[in-house]
Design brief:
By secondary structure, the protein is an alpha/beta fold. The chain is 41% helix and 15% strand. The strands form three sheets. Strands 5-4-3-6-7 form a five-stranded mixed sheet, sandwiched between helices. Strands 10-9-8-11-12 form a five-stranded mixed sheet. The structure holds zinc ion. The site of zinc ion has 6 residues, from loops. Zinc ion binds next to loops.
């Protein structure tokens, strides 16, 4: 870094620096603030880091020299006082490969900092869905994007629709694909990445990571979407099959002792209900996912179109279709029971609903809020805001967050490697 940055001022800054991810330099924290939109100007960066203007100038200059951000010193115009330099993610800066495997297919995209996804590629699931075949298909698609891009690629991460253990990265209960429980998916993905042709410009070993899709979607919403500014963010989502949950506390995912926390899909919301893949009946999974909505309305989805898309259309049609309305209300009541149980245990300050649950919220917002409030004592006096997810392709954006993690921690080490 040019010059030696001043020490941050005492007090609050010291308390923050005691967090485990702070330390060596201010580059990581500064890049994180710019990446999440919390420091759009150098004066915002100065106050967010609690440092002097000179230090903030040195830090932003160094991030600019690393090709990660741009610093625009031309006055914004119109404002009073001295204009501050504007900070933005460099649109020509490096990218990562973000990938997602779900019940209806594979999605892969390159992603810059700032939650900026390039247009994703969507592919059908290969005929054989054994782990190596699927991971090879994902890696091949990502490698093709990386080779075709003029931007340097720094890492890859993959979102999966099943629980993934930490720190070893094994897939548990991968019911959608009938993988053996305990498949070492992080190792298998790393091996496919090792063998892939990612172009001449990448460093080796090329970092890769794997995590659960709901966890990653929650991270995406917290940093770039409907969860911004919340301190205890609960995300519940129904994607292509089943239901996932995640909790972000003070900006960090709460993943439990082994990565398996918030497995909310098997909460019982109707003991006499529909059978779940786990062997029980009436799990949130089986009562509030796309299959459940079609069962409730008594219609058969078109087998040639993704079930998820059809379920969303069905939920949206509740406005003018009494049968759809009744089915939506049935599912919303079940969802409300599940959310109330989570609210009582976790005491979140915001709930973000994603996937099909977002459409159910849009179709019956008051009903859902009432069911939740009725079932939690404190909910009657102070309702938890239940809001729709905002991030498009949140699984991919969240996978990008995971892939960016080393760079956000130590930008200099990653970019100059
Ligand atoms: Zn279950």
């Amino acid at each position: 870094m040019p010059g030696t940055p001043d020490e941050p001022r005492q007090g609050a800054a010291d308390a923050r620096r005691s967090a485990p991810d702070r330390g060596r330099t201010l580059l990581g924290p500064a890049l994180t603030l710019i990446h999440t939109g919390r420091a759009p100007t150098r004066s915002a960066l100065t106050s967010a880091l609690d440092v002097t203007r000179a230090t903030a100038g040195a830090v932003s200059g160094e991030l600019e020299a690393l090709g990660l951000i741009t610093v625009d010193s031309s006055p914004a115009g119109g404002g009073r006082g001295r204009p501050s330099h504007r900070l933005a993610i460099d649109p020509a800066g490096p990218v990562v490969i973000a990938a997602q495997i779900h019940a209806d297919g594979l999605s892969v995209a390159l992603a810059g900092l700032g939650g900026r996804l390039e247009p994703p590629v969507h592919l059908p699931l290969p005929a054989a869905t054994d782990p190596v075949r699927l991971l090879r298909a994902v890696t091949a698609a990502g490698a093709e994007l990386a080779r075709a891009s003029s931007r340097r690629c720094l890492g890859a991460a993959l979102a999966l629709p099943n629980p993934v253990t930490e720190p070893d990265g094994t897939a548990l209960a991968a019911l959608h694909f009938a993988w053996p429980s305990g498949t070492p998916v992080a190792d298998l993905f790393a091996e496919e990445i090792r063998k892939a042709d990612l172009g001449p410009d990448v460093r080796r070993p090329f970092p890769s990571a794997v995590a659960n899709d709901a966890n990653l979607a929650a991270l995406a919403e917290h940093r770039h979407g409907a969860g911004r500014g919340s301190r205890h963010l609960l995300l519940v989502t129904s994607g292509h099959r089943g239901v996932g949950g995640a909790l972000v506390i003070d900006g960090r995912l709460h993943t439990g002792s082994a990565g398996l926390a918030l497995e909310v899909g098997h909460l019982t919301v109707d003991p006499q209900g529909r059978p779940c893949q786990c062997g029980n009946r009436g799990c949130l999974n089986a009562e509030t996912d796309p299959d459940a909505l079609f069962a409730a309305v008594g219609r058969t989805p078109d087998p040639d179109r993704p079930l998820f898309d059809q379920a969303r259309e069905l939920a949206r049609s509740a406005v003018g279709d009494p049968e759809a309305r009744s089915a939506v209300e049935h599912i919303v009541d079940r969802l409300g029971l599940g959310l109330a149980g989570m609210v009582n245990i976790l005491n979140p300050d915001r709930i973000v609903l994603s996937g099909l649950h977002r459409d159910l919220l849009a179709a019956a917002p008051e009903r859902l809020a009432s069911v939740v409030a009725e079932r939690c004592l404190w909910g009657r006096s102070g309702r938890v805001p239940i809001v729709p997810a905002e991030v498009v392709h949140a699984g991919l954006v969240g996978a990008a967050e995971l892939a960016w993690e080393p760079c956000l921690h130590e930008p200099q080490a990653v970019v100059t490697a």
